[in-house]
Amino acid sequence: MLDRASLIITIIGAINWLMVGLFKFDLVAYLCGGQTAVVSRVIYTIVGIAGLWCISLLFRQRVPEGEKE
Q: Model's pTM, two decimal places?
């Protein structure tokens, strides 16, 4: 559950960065009152933590569905 939630949050963050790169438009800052607003900083922090959590997905052993205990 945490893996999936982290991946979704990371994807949303990536879409925000895509918009910053292509259109110079930061949706989080726009919705929350600027990049330095407390709410924006909390969202950026959550996205960053989710991204760090997703790094662990790269190093985990995958177990086929039929073999789970």
A: 0.80
